[in-house]
Write a structure and sequence with these properties.
The chain is built from 9 helices and 16 strands. By secondary structure, it is an alpha+beta fold. It has 2 domains: about 120 residues, Probable inorganic polyphosphate/atp-NAD kinase, domain 1 (Rossmann fold), CATH 3.40.50.10330; about 170 residues, Sandwich (Tumour Suppressor Smad4), CATH 2.60.200.40. The strands form 2 sheets. Strands 1, 2, 3, 4, 5, 6, 8, 9, 13 and 16 form a 10-stranded mixed sheet that branches. Strands 12-11-10-7-14-15 form a 6-stranded antiparallel sheet. Helix 2 packs across helix 3.
C-alpha cells in the first residue's frame, strides 16, 4: 500500500518515559491495527527529528498525525506543523498517546494515559482547535519556537535544566529539580512589557501559559484557557528561597498565583528583556530553547487536536 492511501502518520519517540515508547510500541501498533487504523510509522532517532518527519509527512499529504511520546515529542510535532507552509496549520489534526515522564499537556484536555483509551479517543475523531504561542528572539538570528502548553523564563527554565538530567527517576524528577534549583538559582533583573504596561525589577520567573499544567503537574498560572485567545501570564517577582519552600504545595494546587509577590494578567503578547549580563534559561513545553530577550505572541486556534 502506498503512503498516499494511508490515513495516519504515527511518530514514536522510543526514549520517552525512560524507554516506554520503545517498550510499548509493539502493543500500541497491535491496538492501532485492531482499531483499523491505516498508518505509516517512524521511530525518531535524534532530538527534534519529529520536526523533519512532520514536514515530510505533510508533503506526502498526511493530514492526521499521532504522537507517541511525551510533552517534548508533541512540542516538536507542533513546531513541525507551525514551520511548514504547505497546509494551513489548523488542517493538520494531531492525536496523542501519552508515554512521557510528565504528560502535562494531556491533563488539560483530559486525554487518558491508558493506551487503548487514548486510541479510542482518537478514533472518535472529535476535534478541537487550541491557541499556540510563538517565541521570537530579539537581536538574534534564531528560528522562532512555538509552544502549545507553557513557556517560562528564569527559575522555571532552570528547573527544566535539572529535570532533563534526572528523568530516569520519573515524575519525581520535577520535585527533585525544583528542590535542587532552590540552592543554585539566583533571581534576575527583568523588564516585562505587555498591555501598554511595564513591570521591572528582581524576578524569580515569568510564566506564559496556554494550558493549565506544567512541570509534572504544577499549576503556575491563574486561569489558563487554551481556547480563549489569551495567554495567562504570571510574573513571580523577588520571591526568596524561603518563600518558595513555604509555598511548594501551592505550586501544585494552583494557589501559588494568589501570592502577594506574584502578578497575574491576560494578554495576547508579551516582551521580556533581561537587564543583566547573565541570561536565565527559557523553556517551552519543558524543552530548553536558549536564552536572551524575547517577544511572545499568541496565534489563535492554530493547533487542531483529537480530544
Amino acid at each position: 500500500m502506498d503512503t498516499a492511501s494511508k490515513s495516519w502518520f504515527v511518530i514514536i519517540n522510543p526514549t520517552s518515559g525512560n524507554g516506554s515508547g520503545k517498550k510499548n510500541w509493539p502493543k500500541i501498533k497491535s491496538l492501532l491495527e485492531k482499531h483499523e487504523f491505516i498508518f505509516e510509522h517512524v521511530l525518531t532517532t535524534y532530538s527534534k527529528h519529529s520536526i523533519k518527519l512532520v514536514h515530510q509527512a505533510i508533503k506526502q499529504n498526511f493530514k492526521n498525525i499521532i504522537s507517541v511520546g511525551g510533552d517534548g515529542t508533541l512540542h516538536n510535532i507542533v513546531n513541525g506543523i507551525m514551520t511548514q507552509n504547505n497546509v494551513p496549520t489548523s488542517k493538520i489534526n494531531v492525536g496523542v498517546i501519552p508515554i512521557g515522564t510528565g504528560n502535562d499537556w494531556v491533563k488539560t484536555h483530559k486525554i487518558p494515559k491508558n493506551i487503548d483509551s487514548a486510541i479510542q479517543l482518537i478514533k472518535n475523531k472529535k476535534i478541537a482547535h487550541q491557541d499556540i504561542g510563538k517565541i521570537e528572539f530579539l537581536n538574534q538570528t534564531k528560528t522562532p519556537v512555538y509552544f502549545n502548553n507553557l513557556a517560562g523564563i528564569g527559575f522555571d527554565g532552570y528547573v527544566v535544566s535539572k529535570v532533563n538530567k534526572h528523568k530516569y527517576i520519573g515524575a519525581l524528577a520535577y520535585l527533585y529539580g525544583t528542590l535542587i534549583s532552590l540552592f543554585f538559582f539566583k533571581n534576575f533583573e527583568s523588564k516585562v512589557s505587555s498591555n501598554s504596561e511595564t513591570i521591572s525589577g528582581k524576578t524569580l520567573m515569568v510564566l506564559v501559559g496556554v494550558c493549565k499544567y506544567s512541570g509534572g503537574g504544577m499549576q503556575l498560572t491563574d486561569s489558563p484557557n487554551p481556547f480563549d485567545g489569551y495567554f495567562d501570564i504570571s510574573i513571580a517577582k523577588n520571591l526568596s528561597k524561603l518563600d518558595v519552600i513555604k509555598n511548594v504545595s501551592k505550586l501544585f494546587n494552583g494557589k501559588i498565583s494568589n501570592h502577594k509577590k506574584i502578578q497575574t494578567f491576560k494578554s495576547k503578547h508579551i516582551k521580556v528583556e533581561i537587564n543583566q549580563d547573565e541570561f536565565p534559561f527559557i523553556q517551552a513545553d519543558g524543552e530548553l530553547i536558549g536564552t536572551g530577550n524575547i517577544k511572545i505572541t499568541l496565534i489563535p486556534k492554530a493547533f487542531s487536536l483529537y480530544c
